[in-house]
Amino acid sequence: MPARTTYTKGREVEYLARDLLVDGGYQVVRNAGSLSPIDLVAWQDSGHPVLVQVKRNKTHIDGTALIAQAYRRDIEALRRMARPVGSNVELWVWTLNKGWRFYSILPGGICEVSDHGV
Prior knowledge:
By secondary structure, this protein is an alpha+beta fold.
């Protein structure tokens, strides 16, 4: 069996995030292998799109300030990109020991949310 690469490990976590969205009643498109800051685009017929960047981290990063520091460039790219009016832009971080942490990307920073924004 071939070794798992960084790409395949990241893809596995993107699939987990996709499954959460699908279970929440969303249709989802995965932006595979792209240099775009967005990994998943999700929508429901009655709502605004949700744009998600997914990250996998081996260790638990605790606290919004540490997440903002660890993923500073990614968060800046998410803030700068053009987006549909009314869309939610989120950073989802998965760690081995704590599972999912969800962050809403806002114009002035990030805010941890207790559940994904779907």
